[in-house]
Amino acid sequence: MKVTDKVSSVGRGDYQFNKLPQNNKIIAEYVWIGGRGLDIRSKSRTLDIPKIKSLSDIPEWNYDGSSTFQASGHDSEILLKPRVFYPDPFRLGNNILVLCDTWKPDGTPTNTNFRSECLKVMNKAAHEEPWFGFEQEYVLYRNDTYPHRPLGFPEGGYPAPQGPYYCSVGGGCAFGRQIMEAHYRCCLYTGISISGTNSEVFPGQWEFQIGPVTGIHLGDQVWMARYLLLRVAEHYGTSVNWECKPVIGEWNGSGCHANFSTNSTRREGGIQTIYNYIEKLREKHMYCIDGYGKDNAKRLSGTCETSNINTFSFGVADRGASIRIPRVTANDGKGYFEDRRPASNSDPYVVSALLTDVTVLDGNSTEELHDRYVSFLTSIRPIII
Ligand code: ADP
Ligand code: MN
Ligand code: MN
Ligand code: MN
């Protein structure tokens, strides 16, 4: 069977207009998470200022929450609170992207806003300076075959079995490189700490790594990097699938491995603290799994480089375990470990908060966050974005 996919720029977002002067005004693109959790939304606003110097230069704003599954029509306004701003890699100049979190009129967070609870955990654990490195996997599709046929899949069938696609080079096995490349550059331009990328085991699947970054910055940067990927994919006429098991069977799913370290694990002999953390994670295995994304049971099958969702395990260099201790950490007797359980569709604010609470804090600082996330997951209807 022949692979017919050709990916090319479809000219969405004609960036030649970026060269025009803006009369001392800038465009701020407000970015937020919609009511289904992975439906990132954004809208633009002109600010009458030539350059933004600090967050306080950016006004709060609002949107129609009844169109994002977050409010009813008769009281529809959801408040946007700016949290971080980045230079805009699409509009260039002094234009910015503004990552916001979202609030209901009564002052409570919306169903998908877990940032403020994450921030509380990070402040409580600040003495341990937690560092995170998240590995975001995703699968690309041409728009006209989404969500049925990933890039690299021939029409009406399957490609050659997994084997050639991981870190692949060449037209027969690497699909969608333009998108990865453009996304990589966009992340660097914005100042996001992207530490690398690679193509993955499943055809049309890629990964980017954010890290190491501290505290709340992890969640902020992963969300903004996801937004950038959606924008870049759109430009090339493609769509991103964040589901954790896009194709059932002997095909790898998508994860978001969470690499983690603290002052105590990074210092001499820190591996003892890692073993101590691992025992705490064992005790709270299901509590963490609850917060590690949707449909994760389909992915954590015990095959395809995953552990079984019902069993907690760890090992040095073991890619079939829940927790992997990298060889370098074992050799040095200090460093970081990798929690392989989080799914590609997980919320990095939730995952980083749970991981930090269970290991560094008392394990009771995320109960509300945990329960809110679980009820959010059970309330959302399946959708394709
Ligand atoms: P893998 O071998 O699992 O594919 P990757 O190279 O894709 O690993 O990702 C490893 C991630 O771990 C990177 O994001 C990197 O920045 C991060 N990392 C490295 N050192 C640390 C550390 N000490 N603490 C937390 N994260 C770290
Ligand atoms: Mn990786
Ligand atoms: Mn990977
Ligand atoms: Mn990994």
Automatic annotation (TrEMBL):
Gene3D superfamilies: Glutamine synthetase, N-terminal domain, Glutamine synthetase/guanido kinase, catalytic domain. It catalyses: L-glutamate + NH4(+) + ATP = L-glutamine + ADP + phosphate + H(+). Residues 114-385 form the GS catalytic domain. PROSITE patterns: GLNA_1, GLNA_ATP, GS_BETA_GRASP, GS_CATALYTIC. InterPro entries: Gln_synt_N, Gln_synt_N_sf, Gln_synth/guanido_kin_cat_dom, Gln_synth_cat_dom, Gln_synth_gly_rich_site, Gln_synth_N_conserv_site, Glutamine_Synthetase. Residues 26-107 form the GS beta-grasp domain. One of its GO terms (molecular function) is ATP binding. Its EC number is 6.3.1.2. GO terms for cellular component: cytoplasm. GO terms for biological process: glutamine biosynthetic process. Keywords: ATP-binding, Ligase, Nucleotide-binding. Homooctamer. Belongs to the glutamine synthetase family. This is Glutamine synthetase. It comes from Blepharisma stoltei. The lineage of its organism: Eukaryota, Sar, Alveolata, Ciliophora, Postciliodesmatophora.
